[in-house]
Specification:
Layout (H helix, E strand, L loop, with lengths): L2 H7 L1 H12 L2 H15 L2 H21 L2 H4 L4 H13 L3 H16 L4 E2 L4 E2 L4 H9 L1
Antiparallel strand pairs: 1-2
């Protein structure tokens, strides 16, 4: 299948893979985007949007969310830096929540034809409970 055909039949896996690429890091990015809008910091806003678009387009073309979404990782870093320096307590609390919650969300590999929970701590916990 071409990447477009794969996307047509597996669009849910693509969105799942994009979510698990950053887990709740997306919350940090969207919080920072709203902060830049409030501060009218259009240059930073457009930079992060461009980084996100580039990473997502590469992911859609290459169908590899675990690696290609990493091209959008600088967007997460810029967002984290902005929120950590921001004086808004709500944005700082969202940042803290997203960081802590990311530790609880297990990693997930969304491949071309399967979804795998990688070996490690989370798989040991799941096998221990089952």
């Amino acid at each position: 299948m071409t990447s477009i055909e794969w996307l047509y039949y597996n669009i849910g896996n693509e969105f799942l893979g994009l979510f698990f690429a950053f887990k709740l890091g997306w919350l940090i990015i969207f919080t920072a985007l709203l902060g830049w809008i409030n501060h009218r910091a259009w240059k930073e806003f457009l930079l992060v949007v461009a980084l996100l678009i580039a990473g997502i387009v590469m992911t859609l073309m290459g169908i590899d969310t675990s690696r290609l979404a990493g091209w959008a990782f600088p967007a997460l870093l810029f967002s984290w830096k902005f929120i950590s320096k921001d004086q808004n307590p709500l944005r700082k609390n969202i940042l803290k929540f997203a960081i802590l919650a990311n530790l609880l969300i297990p990693p997930l590999y969304v491949g071309l034809n399967r979804i795998d929970l990688p070996a490690g701590l989370y798989s040991l916990i799941i096998h221990w409970f089952s």
